[in-house]
């Protein structure tokens, strides 16, 4: 079967294939993950004007920016986690570029999350989803629609005395998605792929531990997941080619026919 | 008795803001010995090492024995007001705007007769206290105060020209997330500040003390992150024209040295919060402060830097912290030169370890945030440029003056 790339381009241009932006704007005030203050911290996004048609550069406007690999909407490579540190081609510069384009399923748990910020995704929940939409095929991103991207920043981070309270997956479901469904990676609207209180799980931070341990990827701080169908979207998520990068801010696009 | 200051009426927004003027500020190198004393609120005159004569005005050799050994020493402030005169006209633009102005001669108990500005509550023949103050030009002048405090004496217009009293002024505390920022807000409220703007970065991140901060009457919480140029610029655009005193409470305290540290992340954060944060504040607020140095009762008055005393001598246990503080100290010297044309003081407040979380393992004596805040307010009320708060700060300064090399060696093991 020959594939006509130009008809694909035409379908994009004429709107037969819709392109949906799943990316948050990189801005200084968008929440960045918070760790205990004695630990190393991810740098927030910062921008410094180099010139703006002025004495520093009369005909041009440009900025210098600074940020962490895990700032804003970003991609997690397997090397990010200790469980994936010894895998082949585990950094953003060495991952097979074909993996930056992959289909996705979207599991909607927005109602559950509205009722309970500590909503945890379980195997039965995914099985119930599969009963409605069919089995998750291998090589798919699993995107968790929580509508968390619609929250105020304070509710988005939802930091309390005992840490963050944001939805995410239980350890068992992550292991199951990797081993039983052979998923491509796991994507969320929240600051990280993991449950807000995920440090209490065994293993802690299971979405990082199991996904990256098996060479799968993470996407976080996504938005507009409510505009995607449960099945059939194709995700373009190509991180910057950072030498031995553990992740990268990126533009995430979904193609929907 | 001094007429109590009344809260200034709201400024007519159509009225021209008068440009700041300064009295003549040129001094000889020797005469800056008075400036050094005034900057710290001391009263010092030259005392001849050989014949003990107390000398005024400053000279390069002793008028009584011709000795050139004339160090400045703290001397008694007491004296008697011999004669006074009221100047009604002057060719100096600064004084023309402030007539009438009283000056007099004071016979000091220490010996010489000094020309001084006169507080309104002093009369010819009275016993007076002399103080050295930095006038709007940044140079030292003497002012005679009544021997005993009088009601509202800080409100005297001549004296207020030489101080940065927070009363009725509008203050910006740049970081209200810390115990120091919160103590500062309370101290300025207690000192009669009209508005205390308190900057809060990352409002989505909860922090202890927010509720108490909100309850302080003149406090207005505003978004401000000194690591974000746009945030600082926006705050200056919004409120800069009604901020008279900026107190930079942004801090980044971490233990650890330069060699003995894993990587640059913390060092970069320290430089970003402290040095670059200061530069951002200076660029955003400095020009507006400088333009408003003569804007009535609540004119722009001061930019306050809170500096670890280890800006003066590195403390290797907190080595990279000390280095970032030293960068801020150097920047403060530059800011002084740049803000002086507006009559705006840059006050550096030095302190040792604080009674806060990041100095948890450091033994006392430590400076309580409230004590630091009191030191800041007192310094502004006095109009000084350099303040040392607490035993450690005083100790480091004294040891530095005697033998910097010894202090360097001693800090390595402390």
What does this structure look like?
The complex is a heterodimer of chains A (257) and B (414). By secondary structure, chain A is an alpha/beta fold. Chain A has a single domain, classed as Putative cyclase (Glucose Oxidase, domain 1, 3-Layer(bba) Sandwich), CATH 3.50.30.50. Chain A has helices at 5-13, 110-115, 123-133, 153-157, 171-181, 206-213; strands spanning 18-21, 46-54, 57-66, 74-76, 101-108, 120-121, 141-145, 159-160, 163-164, 168-169, 185-188, 217-220, 231-237, 247-249, 252-256. In chain A, the strands form four sheets. Chain A has a nine-stranded mixed sheet, covered by helices on one side. Chain A has a two-stranded antiparallel ribbon with strand order 2-3. Chain A is globular and about 65 Å long. In chain A, 39% of the residues are buried. Chain B folds into two domains: 32-156, no CATH class; 170-412, NAD(P)-binding Rossmann-like Domain (Rossmann fold, 3-Layer(aba) Sandwich), CATH 3.40.50. In chain B, α7 (265-291) runs parallel beside α8 and α10 crosses α11. Chain B starts with 31 loop residues before the first helix and ends with a helix. Chains A and B meet through β2, α4 and β8 of A and α6 and α7 of B.
């Amino acid at each position: 079967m020959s594939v006509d790339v130009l008809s694909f381009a035409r379908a994009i241009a004429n709107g037969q294939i819709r392109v949906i932006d799943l990316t948050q704007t990189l801005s200084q005030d968008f929440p960045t993950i918070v760790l205990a203050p004695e630990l190393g911290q991810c740098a927030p996004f910062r921008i410094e004007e180099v010139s703006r048609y002025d004495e520093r550069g009369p005909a041009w406007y440009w900025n210098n920016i600074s940020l962490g690999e895990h700032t804003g909407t970003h991609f997690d490579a397997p090397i990010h986690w200790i469980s994936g540190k010894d895998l082949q081609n585990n950094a953003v510069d060495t991952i097979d570029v074909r993996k930056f384009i992959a289909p996705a399923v979207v599991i909607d748990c927005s109602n559950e999350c509205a009722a309970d910020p500590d909503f945890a995704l379980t195997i039965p929940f995914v099985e119930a989803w599969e009963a409605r939409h069919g089995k998750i095929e291998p090589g798919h991103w699993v995107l968790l629609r929580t509508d968390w991207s619609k929250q105020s920043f304070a509710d988005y981070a939802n930091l309390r005395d005992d840490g963050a309270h944001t939805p995410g997956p239980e350890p068992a479901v992550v292991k199951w998605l990797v081993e039983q469904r052979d998923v491509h990676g796991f994507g969320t609207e929240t600051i990280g792929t993991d449950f807000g209180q995920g440090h209490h799980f065994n293993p802690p931070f299971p979405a990082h531990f199991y996904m990256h341990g098996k060479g799968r990827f993470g996407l976080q701080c996504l938005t507009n997941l409510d505009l995607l169908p449960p099945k059939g979207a194709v995700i373009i998520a190509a991180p910057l080619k950072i030498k031995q990068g553990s992740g990268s801010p990126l533009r995430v696009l979904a193609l929907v026919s | 008795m001094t007429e109590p200051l009344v809260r200034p009426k709201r400024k007519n927004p159509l009225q021209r803001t008068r440009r700041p003027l300064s009295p003549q500020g040129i001094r000889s190198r020797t005469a800056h010995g008075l400036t050094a004393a005034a900057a710290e609120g001391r009263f010092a005159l030259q005392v001849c090492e050989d014949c003990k004569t107390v000398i005024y005005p400053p000279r390069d050799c002793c008028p009584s024995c011709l000795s050139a050994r004339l160090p400045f020493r703290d001397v008694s402030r007491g004296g008697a007001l011999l004669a006074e005169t009221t100047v009604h006209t002057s060719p100096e633009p600064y004084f023309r705007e402030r007539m009438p102005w009283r000056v007099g001669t004071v016979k000091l108990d220490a010996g010489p007769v000094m020309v001084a500005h006169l507080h309104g509550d002093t009369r010819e023949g009275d016993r007076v206290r002399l103080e050295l103050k930095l006038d709007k030009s940044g140079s030292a002048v003497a002012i005679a105060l009544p021997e005993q405090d009088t009601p509202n004496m800080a409100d005297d217009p001549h004296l207020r020209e030489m101080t940065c009293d927070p009363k009725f002024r509008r203050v910006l505390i740049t970081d209200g997330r810390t115990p120091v920022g919160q103590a500062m807000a309370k101290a300025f409220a207690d000192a009669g500040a009209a508005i205390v703007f308190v900057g809060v970065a990352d409002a989505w991140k909860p922090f202890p003390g927010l509720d108490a901060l909100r309850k302080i009457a003149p406090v207005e919480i505003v978004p401000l992150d000194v690591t974000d140029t746009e945030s600082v610029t926006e705050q200056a655009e919004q409120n800069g024209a009604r901020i008279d005193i900026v107190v930079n409470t942004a801090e980044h305290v971490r233990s650890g040295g330069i060699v003995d540290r894993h990587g640059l992340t913390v060092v970069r954060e320290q430089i970003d919060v402290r040095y670059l944060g200061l530069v951002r504040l200076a660029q955003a607020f400095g020009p507006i402060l400088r333009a408003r140095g003569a804007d009535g009762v609540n004119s722009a008055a001061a930019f306050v830097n809170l500096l670890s005393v280890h800006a003066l001598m590195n403390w290797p246990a907190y080595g990279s912290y000390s280095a970032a503080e030293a960068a801020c100290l150097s920047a403060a010297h530059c800011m002084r030169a740049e803000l002086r044309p507006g009559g705006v003081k840059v006050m550096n407040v030095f302190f040792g370890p604080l009674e806060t979380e990041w100095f948890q393992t450091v033994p006392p004596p430590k400076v309580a945030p409230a004590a630091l805040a009191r030191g800041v307010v007192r310094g502004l009320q006095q109009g000084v440029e350099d303040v040392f708060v607490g035993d450690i700060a005083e100790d480091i300064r004294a040891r530095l003056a005697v033998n910097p090399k010894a202090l360097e060696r001693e800090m390595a093991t402390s």
